[in-house]
Amino acid sequence: MTTHGNQTILVLGATGKTGRRLVHTLRTAGRTVRAASRSGEIRFDWSDQDTWPTALAGASAVYLIAPEDPALAQIFVKQATEAGVARFVALSARGIEQLPADFFQGMTAAEQAVRESGAQWTILRPNNFNQNFDDDVWRAPLRGGRLALPIGSVPEPFIDAQDIADVAAAVLTSDSHHEQVYDLSGPRALTFGTAVATIAKAAGRPIRYVELTPQEYRAELLAAGVSEEAAAELNALFAGMRAGHFAEPVDGVRRVLGRDPIDFDTYVTRAAAADAWS
Question: Is 180 helix (H, G, I), strand (E, B) or coil?
Fold first, then answer.
């Protein structure tokens, strides 16, 4: 069953990889969207609770991008339900339950908060995004001709951010996904070496993948100005990936949307055409 009417959907992180695509997808479908972020149409800042009420006013559903501070998740969700929010869709991460408990605490807290909210809830747990290659995370190294990570030969079924947005839009506007946790991946797993080779070919220039030890990776992150805490969290994520916890493709996109997810080659062709790695 699909929810119609004039419900207002609050999208947090509305300028981010999934959020901005979700806003576009929902508005294209004629939905009323409140696009909220620190620099968006509606100002929302996790560290400034005075920005929360305006974002929440009149909203009946929320796309929840977790705060870094785990203590804020429950406070926000409680405020949201008191303001009339009846549905939450929380973006988490695939295999989060298999990562060390002291990392990614914001996502874990957000999952727990929506489960305990008394409202309808759905949790989305995607693999690494395709867009990590052409957006903020790995774009600069790739443009510099070298991506160096501690992943080995374990493959990753990268997922396109548009697929996450399409799933989120479907779940936010339908009554049939309550208490569901959807693992989301792309259609096939490929190694980072293969991914970089695919990008290099599409970009028409040499780009190499370099395998690092976790210690070498930490040193490169710190040299680039990344904090000790963030470096440790990233290394924990890659340790989980090396263990193969997220290596198998899953059918979450097909279960929700009834179609296959976007293939990595399709993503690379589009990004290269937009001069992502020139």
Answer: strand
Using only the alpha carbons of the chain, give its radius of gyration. Answer: 19
Backbone angles phi, psi at 15, to 5 degrees: -105, 5
* Distance separating alpha carbons of residues 115 and 44, to the nearest angstrom: 23
Contact between 56 and 86 (Cβ < 8 Å): no
Average pLDDT, integer, range 228-250: 92
Q: How many CB atoms lie within 10 A of CB 224?
A: 10
DSSP states along 187-253: SS-B-HHHHHHHHHHHHTS--EEEE--HHHHHHHHHHTT--HHHHHHHHHHHHHHHTTTT-S---HH
Backbone angles phi, psi at 251, to 5 degrees: -105, 20
Nearest Cα neighbor of 152 from 88, 211, 106, 112 is 211
In the chain, % of residues over pLDDT 70: 98
Q: Are 202 and 164 spatial neighbours (Cβ–Cβ below 8 Å)?
A: no
**Phi first, then psi: what are they for 33, rounded to 5°?**
-125, 135
Segment 237-253 mean pLDDT: 93
151 neighbors 238 (Cβ within 8 angstroms): yes
213 by Cβ neighbours in 10 Å (0-12 / 13-18 / 19+) ranks as exposed
For residue 228, the tally of other CB atoms under 10 A from its CB is 10
The DSSP line for 45-67 is: BTTBGGGHHHHHTTEEEEEEEPP
Q: Tell which residue, 185, 128, 123, 165, has the closest CA to residue 18.
A: 165
**C-alpha span between 144 and 55 (Å, rounded):** 39
Tell me if residue 102 falls in helix, strand or coil: coil
Q: Which pLDDT score is estimated for 112? A: 97
